[in-house]
Input
Amino acid sequence: MGLKDWIIQYSPLSYWLVAFIVTGFAVALYRGWFKARKIQPKGFKWTIFRNEAIYGTINVAVSSTFLVWITKVGTESGVIAFHHEPAAWWVIALEYALYFFLFDTWFYWLHRWMHNEPFYSLIHKIHHKSTSPNLLTTISVNPLESLVNGGFVPLFTAVFTVHSETMLLITPTNIIMGLYVHSGYEFLPRWWNKTWATKWFITATFHDQHHKYFRWNFGGYTTIWDYVCNTRRTNYESDFDQIKARAATSKAIAPPAVAARAEQQRGAGLSLKRKKNFHGEEWGHGGHGDKKFSVPNPVFPVSPFLPRGNSSF
Ligand SMILES: [Zn+2]
Ligand SMILES: [Zn+2]
Output
């Protein structure tokens, strides 16, 4: 069976597996390059990683079965339908933009809703056991949460009849964004948050800070709702700048062996300098105790679950 047939037969589970394998190879090849871009250099914990593998396997098995079933029933009954004829590029672009901004809105508000009790303990808490995300964190989610988020696509395609070509953009967007924001590495360029055209799109640092500081940065695709509702972490942009400055001062862009030699030649002086350059705040302590928290939550009052959520880690 060719890869294409295999993907068709086992979709969407196979998308995840292919994405994981490809990303795994990339990580192995460019460890030095990646190391310089790590958002929380000391954040990784094996026990959390093991639990993510367990939660992730259960979640993918349960939620993909259910979502595939919903989509199948919807398609067979004619509720979910697509235009299969070719469309102009701008039609595809408009349909894609409609999905992009509607999903962003859906994700933001349901995400904030899941941060309130009892939904936090019942649904969202599993995903927040990871305070320093890695690729597995993407799927380490309660199946109910996967249905809340993943259920958007069947719902969207039931309400709007879009072109099947648009779906070829939507499905990878979902997967790539999920993996990127949980990668634990910042790959975007330094100018990202300084340019009007790009600063509205979230970064890995943005969502990483949601896992680390817990009560900020709820957005899934854009920072728009976080701006509007004042839930964007104040230090987000300066932290992003510091991570990028660290990557720029590191010479680890070279392949691992070359980078290791260069590291030896530079001696201990640089590691001291790097530590100093890196970050004003202490990363990787795993709490959600962002002392700078002062912005009132305009919609949901700051709820009593926050300290409890914090102490449970
Ligand atoms: Zn959350
Ligand atoms: Zn997350």
